[in-house]
């Protein structure tokens, strides 16, 4: 509905009279932008709000029934939901570690060496990011089906590492673009071996890039639904559990967990910004 | 390059296996045999043509909406954001901190017949009691447009932010009025962002099935729903693989033409 509203606003006076020209940028555009940003944030507010809806333990009703802290007080009373959340966290941690290491290696290789497969690797990264998720999920499932690999937590981790490598590689590569190689040469001139040079000079310099790529990978992994859905078998993750519960009814704990994940994510992002400001 | 190996084994090779599975015949109980059943592609395309057409239709409309809604927003943040530019960008990114499924679920709560919006409007008699949005095309398309708006707005913002302000001033000095400055200087310079945004929005929008499944009904089934159903519930692996392959083929050809026309670099910069 807000979409319709917003579009009407955009079509509003295209050519204001001379005197009203400033009003266009001073008034109309800011109000419009505010509305769109509000529209973007609205579902998040709804999620937070409905975590407090007093509609009983089984399912949150669409209708607002008053304020309650039930969901917060009984956060972990549903063992299947709690297990799904634990799976999600475990998968996100493991796949982030693997994807960060492998993605960083690809980025280093792409920036440092001119090798034969360079353009192809570049193209594969691009394709991996731009191909629709459903195709990635379906093709990986085809591989597992062909070899009779049972689907479970291992196949989910493999899938998550697969789609996260490209994101880490692209992020770290962007960071490497401004890297001064003379620093490494200086280290070697001062008698440092390749390993010491890497751990004491290269790694600290690109650490921020790896951290950014890793955080992105973690966020993508914990949120992923489509690829996980195809390769999970009977294993549940948090998004899968929620999707499965849509038809039966969403218990309030889902909105509370969503709110808490959101809060932690925003907190980390803000801390990151503050840390950056301090350094600058 | 162990990372490259991982991508080879778990990204490129699976695509060939998908092709191979799509040309098998058989069923789950008796097993599948490689029969090079090329006719399957004709069959699935005929059987599921409405869903294919609908996916591309929804994807196109949703992409157009995100472009129309996102452009003024990106323009405003880039040129008039002032001191709070970072804050506005942060708000734009905020939806990414909530799981895609939960965001769509929240949309369901917003659009529900007796939810906070429609319920309130109905109790004030601004809408007839029988009015509903859920399970219609409108619900699915606006859900997709909502979920992918940041994918459109961010590359637009990057391209607008990059424009050299002196060029804009020069146009003003040369007596271009505001409209001409926008149409002949700013908009043409933001075209790479427009293309990147369209690509980043359209591809996932066409393949999406979460919105259609949570917000839609039986008349809004998209091709993603069919692929998921055939793969995970009916275990018709060959049919599902063939459908995925057609979807990937069509989109890849589109991306390829796109990259040829614009140069892959220019798109990649925004990914």
- Characterize the overall form of chain A: globular
Structural class of chain B: mainly alpha
Please estimate the helix content of chain B.
Answer: over 70%
Beta-strand proportion of chain A: under 5%
Write the CATH architecture name of chain B: Orthogonal Bundle
SSE order of chain A, as H and E?
Answer: HHHHHHHHHHHH
Query: In total, how many beta strands of chain A?
Result: 0
Q: Which residues of chain A form runs of ≥5 with pLDDT under 50?
A: 1-19
**Helix residue percentage of chain A:** over 70%
The order of strands across the largest sheet of chain B is 1-2
Radius of gyration of chain B: 22 Å
CATH architecture group name of the largest domain in chain A? Orthogonal Bundle
Spans of at least 5 consecutive residues with low confidence of chain B: none
How many helical stretches of chain B? 14
Which CATH class of chain B is shown?
Mainly Alpha
Element string of chain B (H = helix, E = strand) = HEEHHHHHHHHHHHHH
Q: What's the CATH class of the largest domain in chain A, please?
A: Mainly Alpha
Summarize the main sheet of chain B: 2 strands, antiparallel
Shape of chain B: globular
* Domains of chain B (count): 1
CATH topology of the largest domain in chain A: MetI-like fold
Polypeptide structure, described:
The complex is a heterodimer of chains A (280) and B (271). Chain A folds into 2 domains: 2-73, no CATH class; 79-250, MetI-like fold (Orthogonal Bundle). Helices cover 75% and strands 0% of the residues of chain A. Chain A contains 12 helices and no strands. Helices cover 74% and strands 3% of the residues of chain B. Chain B has 271 residues and is mainly α. Chain B has a single domain (50-268), classed as MetI-like fold. Chain B has 14 helices and 2 strands, in the order H-E-E-H-H-H-H-H-H-H-H-H-H-H-H-H. In chain B, helix 1 crosses helix 13, helix 8 (165-173) runs antiparallel to helix 9 (178-189) and helix 10 (191-207) packs antiparallel against helix 13 (237-262). The radius of gyration of chain B is 22 Å and the shape is globular. In chain B, strands 1-2 form a two-stranded antiparallel sheet. Classes of the chains: A mainly alpha (280), B mainly alpha (271).
């Amino acid at each position: 509905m807000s979409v319709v509203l917003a579009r009407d606003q955009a079509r509003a006076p295209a050519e204001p009279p001379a005197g009203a020209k400033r009003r266009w940028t001073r008034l109309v555009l800011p109000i419009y932008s505010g509305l769109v940003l509000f529209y973007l944030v609205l579902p998040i507010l709804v999620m937070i709000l409905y975590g407090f809806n007093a509609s009983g333990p089984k399912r949150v009703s669409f209708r607002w029934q008053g304020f309650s802290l039930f969901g917060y007080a009984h956060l972990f009373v549903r063992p299947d939901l709690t297990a799904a959340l634990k799976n999600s966290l475990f998968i996100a941690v493991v796949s982030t570690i693997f994807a960060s290491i492998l993605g960083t290696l690809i980025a280093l290789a792409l920036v440092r060496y001119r090798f034969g497969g360079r353009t192809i690797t570049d193209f594969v990264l691009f394709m991996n990011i731009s191909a629709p998720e459903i195709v990635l999920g379906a093709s990986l499932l085809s591989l597992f089906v062909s070899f009779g690999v049972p689907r479970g937590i291992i196949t989910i981790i493999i899938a998550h590492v697969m789609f996260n490598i490209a994101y880490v590689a692209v992020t770290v590569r962007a960071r490497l673009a401004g890297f001064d190689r003379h620093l490494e040469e200086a280290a070697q001139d001062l008698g440092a071996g390749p390993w010491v040079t890497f751990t004491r000079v290269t790694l600290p310099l690109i650490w921020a890039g790896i951290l950014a790529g890793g955080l992105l990978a973690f966020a993508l992994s914990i949120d992923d639904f489509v690829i996980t859905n195809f390769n999970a078998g009977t294993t549940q993750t948090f998004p899968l559990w929620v999707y499965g519960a849509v038809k039966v009814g969403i218990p309030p704990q889902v909105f509370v967990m969503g709110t808490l994940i959101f809060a932690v994510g925003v907190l980390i992002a803000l801390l990151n910004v503050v840390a950056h400001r301090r350094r600058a | 390059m162990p990372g490259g190996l991982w991508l080879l084994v778990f990204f490129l090779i699976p695509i060939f296996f998908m092709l191979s599975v799509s040309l098998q015949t058989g069923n789950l109980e008796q097993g599948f045999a490689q029969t090079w059943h090329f006719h399957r592609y004709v069959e699935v395309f005929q059987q599921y043509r409405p869903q294919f057409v609908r996916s591309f239709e929804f994807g196109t409309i949703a992409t157009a909406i995100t472009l129309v809604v996102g452009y003024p927003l990106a323009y405003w943040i880039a040129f008039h954001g002032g001191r709070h530019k970072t804050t506005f960008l942060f708000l734009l990114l905020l939806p990414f901190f909530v799981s895609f499924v939960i965001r769509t679920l929240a949309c369901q709560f917003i659009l529900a017949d007796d939810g906070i919006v429609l319920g309130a409007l109905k109790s004030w008699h601004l809408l007839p009691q029988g009015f509903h949005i859920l399970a219609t095309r409108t619900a699915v398309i606006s859900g997709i447009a909502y979920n992918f708006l940041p994918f459109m707005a961010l590359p637009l913002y990057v391209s607008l932010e990059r424009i050299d302000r002196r060029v804009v001033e020069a146009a003003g000095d040369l007596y271009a009025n505001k409209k001409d400055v926008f149409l002949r200087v700013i908009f043409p310079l933001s075209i790479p962002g427009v293309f990147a945004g369209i690509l980043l929005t359209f591809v996932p929008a066409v393949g999406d099935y979460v919105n259609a499944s949570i917000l839609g009904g039986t008349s809004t089934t998209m091709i993603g729903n069919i692929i998921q159903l055939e793969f995970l519930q009916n275990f018709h692996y060959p049919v599902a693989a063939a459908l995925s392959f057609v979807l990937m083929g069509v989109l890849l050809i589109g991306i390829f033409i796109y990259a040829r026309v614009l140069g892959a670099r220019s798109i990649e910069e925004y990914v």
